[in-house]
Amino acid sequence: MSWRPTYRSSKFRNVYGKVANREHCFDGIPITKNVHDNHFCAVNSKFLGVVTESAGGGSFIVIPLSQAGRLDSHYPKVCGHQGNVLDIKWNPFFENIIASCSEDTSVSDPQPLFYINILIWNLETGEPVKMIDCHTDVILSMSFNTDGSLLATSCKDKKLRVLEPRSGRVLQVTFLSPSN
Q: Which InterPro entries does this chain map to (predicted)?
């Protein structure tokens, strides 16, 4: 019996990409270098948001997807943070709402109605609903599931927690270990 490696053949082996025409591309966008491990852009079915380089605080730009091509160097920027913008996300339910977070520990939308620290908020009223206080150190990352019923957080104490955001109850705690 001879040894032969078995490889699964890909059904995409004869598929080739095609470069988009220049009129369908976005050009001249000053993309930031300060987002570290976060995304520098966010897109939905209407808009493209890109974190940009700026002096004296953080900013990002919002471009309608129908406006492809070269971007004017004086294109308006969304400003409002004292520190660099770290991440931006579109509201999954209302396509015209975008939120940004910054090194100045604030989260806001382009016309800030309120600033958010680590609290669970009612976004319609701008009122805090619940303070999550089960962490022993700085929260590094957090993410809701698609319907908002669960919240996962990672903390500097090397623990991953799954919570019910409305009650603040911790459902599960897992110790994070480095990949080897």
A: Coronin (IPR015505), DUF1899 (IPR015048), WD40/YVTN_repeat-like_dom_sf (IPR015943), WD40_repeat_dom_sf (IPR036322), WD40_rpt (IPR001680)
Contacts of 66 (CB under 8 A, 6+ apart): none
Task: Extract long-range pairs of 98-102: CB within 8 Å, 24+ residues apart.
Answer: 98/42, 98/47, 98/49, 98/62, 100/51, 100/58, 100/60, 102/58
Closest CA to 79 of 47, 102, 63: 102
Using an 8 Å Cβ cutoff, are 160 and 153 in contact? yes
Structure tokens at 84: 């660099």
- Arithmetic mean of pLDDT over the chain: 79
The pLDDT value given to residue 160: 92
* pTM for the model: 0.53
Q: What pLDDT sits at residue 180?
A: 45
Q: Which helix (H) or strand (E) holds 119?
A: strand 119-122
Residue 16 pLDDT more than 80? no
The Cα–Cα gap between 107 and 139 comes to 14
- Indicate the burial class of 68 (C-beta count within 10 angstroms; 0-12, 13-18, 19 or more): middle
Distance between CA atoms of residues 114 and 44, nearest Å: 23
Distance between CA atoms of 70 and 66, rounded to whole angstroms?
Answer: 12
